[in-house]
Amino acid sequence: MKIIARNRNDQNYSLKVQIIKRKVNPELLTGLYYSQVKNSIKRKIKDDTELLLIKIIPKKSISEKWILESFLHLQRELTSVITVPENIVNMKKEEFEEFEQVFDCNILLD
Question: What is the mean pLDDT of the chain?
């Protein structure tokens, strides 16, 4: 996928975007499972990708805040644009903003 945009001088440029979708089971989250998910995503990243989006698709909706934060952190290890997986965690917008500041990233809220 390519995104075409304009810079300040009205010149067109394009970004090579890659979207990686990864199904996960939040109930299995351990250090080993985290590493396996991270490595499977890393293997799919193409060399010429300029903007990487990772879509974490949980088997069941995430209900624990620490699990949600773990998957956000996993994405941050690989890209600076974070997508929030489906969840039922009661996280406030301010908490996402704090995460953005601490980890120097952008979070896309659906």
Answer: 91
- Per the structure block, which two tokens stand in for 24? 């996960």
CB 63 within 8 A of CB 87: yes
For residue 55, the surrounding DSSP H or E stretch is strand 51-58
Alpha-carbon dihedral 45, 48, 50, 54, rounded to 10 degrees: -20
User: What pLDDT, on a 0 to 100 scale, did the predictor assign at position 98?
Assistant: 95
What ranges in 19-64 are assigned the alpha helix state H? 31-44
Distance of CA 92 to the CA centre of its chain: 18
CB 74 within 8 A of CB 40: no
Domain boundaries, the chain: 17-108
- Mean pLDDT for 86-104 is 93
How confident is the model at residue 15, as a pLDDT?
84
Which carries the bigger pLDDT value, residue 10 or residue 66? 66
Residue 89 has pLDDT above 60, yes or no: yes
The angle formed by the CA atoms of residues 34, 91 and 53, to the nearest 5 degrees, is 50
